[in-house]
Amino acid sequence: MAWGLGRPPLTASFKYQEKIEYVWPYIAKSLFPIQARGIVWSNEMGGGRMTRHSDRLRRLAESDGVSAELVERMLDLAVRGLPPGYVDGEFVFTRRGALGADGRWTAVPEGRSIRYSAIVALGAATLPPDRQRAALSGDTALDLAGRLVKRSPEVTGLGDAALICWAAAETGHHDLEAALGRLAELDDASRSGDGVYTVEAAWALAALAAARTAGGSGLDDRMERALRRLLDGLKGDRLYRHVLGSAPWYRAHVGCFADQVYPLQALARVHALTGDGEALRAAEQVAEGICEAQGAEGQWWWHYDARTGAVVEGYPVYSVHQLSMAPMALLDLADAGGTDRTGEIARGLGWMLSRPETAQELIVEELDLTWRKAAREDPRKLVRGVRAVATAISSGTKVGVLDRIYPPVVVDRECRPYELGWLLYAWLFSPGRGGR
Question: 372-398: b or e for each residue (b if 16 or more CB lie within 10 Å)?
Answer without folding.
Answer: bbbbbebeeeebbeebbebbbeeeebe
